[in-house]
Design goal:
Shape: globular
GO molecular function: glucuronate isomerase activity
Strand content: 5-15%
Protein name: Uronate isomerase
Family: Belongs to the metallo-dependent hydrolases superfamily. Uronate isomerase family.
GO biological process, one term: D-glucuronate catabolic process
Largest sheet: 4 strands, parallel
Distance between the termini: 42 Å
Helix content: 40-55%
Order of helices and strands: HEHHHHHHHEHEHHHEHHEEHEHEHEHHH
CATH architecture of the largest domain: Alpha-Beta Barrel
Radius of gyration: 23 Å
Strand order of the largest sheet: 4-5-8-9
EC number: 5.3.1.12
Length: about 475
């Protein structure tokens, strides 16, 4: 019987172990996460496992509620050790859930602790972790994982001062801002006018219509580009592609800035125009786009009122945007304005459609490999079976050798262990194919494949 999350975790054959030996040596380029540049600049530490694991991790909060744990032990003011014990209690029920596997990997990789995270070991693990965490900071986790670069999620109005500071105070790891204009896309949200006032101020642009809004956004994209940014991230959950004129777009933005809410048709006309024009600008700057789709957010009104967003009340959406996305990408392609794009869907039922959509638009004169991609298994799909399914879909419907690989999408500094988890799954799956005679057994080819998916492809794709 194998050790729980031991040295050969998920590696079921000799070929898998050989492939993992190559994979484990590769750096990490984590091209989408929610880490905070200020915390890295301040080089914060963690007093205990509660601060490391439970402070802001809504993945864990969600499961704790499912286990019947009271909110005071989740987001409330209970003692840190009591919160930790409640999490360990929950772990004993989470058999088969990746959260327990990730925690066990994190204990082993970063703290050298191999005891199973169960209640009878809880006090010993807490004490040993506390002693070791006292000598560590948030940067330690990135250094131990051989992180080459991370891309944080930042708003157009952010000044990226801490990203700039980190270039000199901690050059060992590139900390890069990803441009995420979701607050612009949420044009019907309360507070939109106040946000536009801030965008006007930071861009030095009097935003009074759609034209001036796009001028302001391009100024901010130029700023991000000068700061080393090379990608933009969009949350896109509801979408109808309705072509519109600039005159109509100007009228729509003026209406909203006057305080009136938009109709559904006006909203989708605005989003259609905005996505087209932003895509054109990204292509000009040779940026990549990341689209995260099919998530229903903030579904529990009671908890949303008390705690706000990102607290563990989101879920997978059912629909897919195949027709409108194909229409929009077709227009951009015909203009010569379609650039690099990875589409991440929270719903695995969409992956066939995305992979085949990607294949429609790969032709380019720039030699870009996998210009349009099915994104990696994301959020609820980032599981053992989810990762296998995504890799298989990518291999069967696209070209596995151009896959840009894993991201954490995380707020936790110990979450880079998820790259190890993904690499083990990848190596075992490809190793199984080799052992079964389903693909060539050639070390040069296999090494290039594995090292590409783990790091080299993403580095080439983004250009960091």
């Amino acid at each position: 019987m194998k050790e729980f999350c031991g040295e050969d975790f998920l590696l079921e054959n000799p070929t898998a172990k050989k492939l993992y030996d190559w994979a484990s040596k590769m750096p990490i380029l984590d091209y989408h996460n929610h880490l905070v540049a200020k915390e890295l600049a301040d080089n914060i530490g963690f007093r205990n496992l509660t601060e490391l694991w439970l402070k802001g991790d809504h993945y864990k909060w969600r499961q704790m509620r499912t286990c019947g744990i009271q909110e005071k032990y989740i987001t409330g003011d209970a003692d840190d050790y009591d919160k930790y014990l409640k999490w360990v209690e929950c772990c004993e029920m989470l058999i088969g859930n990746p959260l327990t596997q990730w925690c066990q990997l994190e204990l082993r990789i970063y703290l050298g602790i191999t005891k199973p995270l169960i209640l009878k070991n809880a006090k010993a693990i807490w004490d040993e972790a506390q002693t070791k965490l006292a000598t560590m900071t948030c940067r330690t986790f990135l250094e131990k994982s051989n992180v080459y670069a991370i891309c944080t999620t930042d708003d157009p109005i952010d000044n990226l001062e801490y990203h700039q500071e980190l270039k000199t105070s901690w050059p060992a790891v590139k900390v890069i801002g990803n441009f995420r204009p979701d607050k612009v896309m949420k044009i019907n949200a309360d507070g939109f006018g106040d946000y536009i006032a801030k965008l006007s101020n930071v861009s030095g642009t009097d935003i009074k219509d759609y034209d001036s809004l796009m001028i302001a956004l391009e100024k901010r994209i130029n700023f991000y580009d000068q700061m080393g940014g090379k990608s933009a991230d969009h949350g896109l959950n509801e979408f109808q592609f309705i072509p519109t004129t600039i005159a109509e777009a100007n009228t729509i933005v003026k209406k909203r800035l006057s305080g009136q809410k938009l109709t559904e048709e006006e909203f989708f006309k605005f989003i259609s125009a905005l996505l087209l024009d932003l895509s054109r600008i990204y292509k000009k700057y040779d940026w990549a786009m990341l689209w995260h789709i099919n998530c229903l957010r903030d579904n529990n009104p009671e908890l949303f009122k008390k705690l706000g967003s990102d607290i563990g009340t989101d879920s997978t959406a059912e629909g897919f945007l195949a027709k409108p996305l194909n229409q929009m990408l077709g227009i951009l392609k015909a203009e010569g304005n379609l650039g690099k794009l990875s589409i991440f869907s929270l719903n695995p039922n969409n992956w066939d459609a995305i992979a085949t959509l990607a294949g429609n638009f790969q032709n380019n004169d720039d030699g870009i490999k996998g210009m349009i991609q099915l994104g990696t298994a994301w959020w609820f799909a980032d599981t053992y079976t989810g990762n296998i399914m995504q890799i298989e879909k990518f291999a069967e419907l696209s070209t596995l050798g151009v896959n840009i690989g894993m991201l954490t999408d995380s707020r936790a500094y110990s979450s880079f262990a998820r790259h190890d988890y993904y690499r083990r799954i990848l190596c075992n799956l490809v190793g199984e194919w080799v052992e079964r005679g389903m693909c060539v057994n050639d070390d040069t080819i296999l090494k290039r494949l594995i090292e590409g998916i783990c790091f080299n492809n993403a580095k080439e794709y983004f250009g960091y």
